[in-house]
Amino acid sequence: xxxxxxxxxxxxxxxxxxxxxxxxxxxxxxxxxxxxxxxxxxxxxxxxxxxxxxxxxxxxxxxxxxxxxxxxxxxxxxxxxxxxxxxxxxxxxxxxxxxxxxxxxxxxxxxxxxxxxxxxxxxxxxxxxxxxxxxxxxxxxxxxxxxxxxxxxxxxxxxxxxxxxxxxxxxxxxxxxxxxxxxxxxxxxxxxxxxxxxxxxxxxxxxxxxxxxxxxxxxxxxxxxxxxxxxxxxxxxxxxxxxxxxxxx
Length: 249
Description:
Blueprint: H1 2-80, H2 85-106, H3 110-114, H4 117-131, H5 139-167, E1 170-173, H6 177-180, H7 184-189, H8 200-206, E2 222-225, H9 233-238
Antiparallel strand pairs: 1-2
């Protein structure tokens, strides 16, 4: 029995070693195959990188060639319009000054713009004069001049709307104090005007050309009645201190 048991143990040990060796050999083969695959992948990537680097170099050469052609075109254009470096600087200064003027006009209220119509006309004339210069054909200058014209057109449209509104504004003809108790306070309080006596300063501010003293208005004066809008800060400050009971003489 013992000899048989020993024989079985020996056979089992031999078989186990055989399986172990087979497994070791299989793992080594797999490892070698993986190394070969990784090596091939590395070589393929190197080849792809080399191809990409060549493509990059080709593109750089194309860009350099295009830059050179663009510069030649710019130089030819500058020569055609007689644009020396000094002329470009002078034109740039005039253009920048005009842009600043137009931007200032664009920031004005409609009422202020009405009072600066001459500035708007002058800006348009300056823009037209710049457009007549050959140097205005340069792409960058031409683009900026077109942008200026768009702003000028917008300002003209705003001015036209303001003029239409002004032509339809309400006019109030002042009556007497003795019979009608007309003063700026009472006029503003009328339901047909503001229905708010505290807005009397709007009438005053809108008629400064003919009202020198808000306490003095006269029968038959034709007062412009501006839109009510919101109460300005100066109106708020007068709410309690000045009730504006302006008497006629």
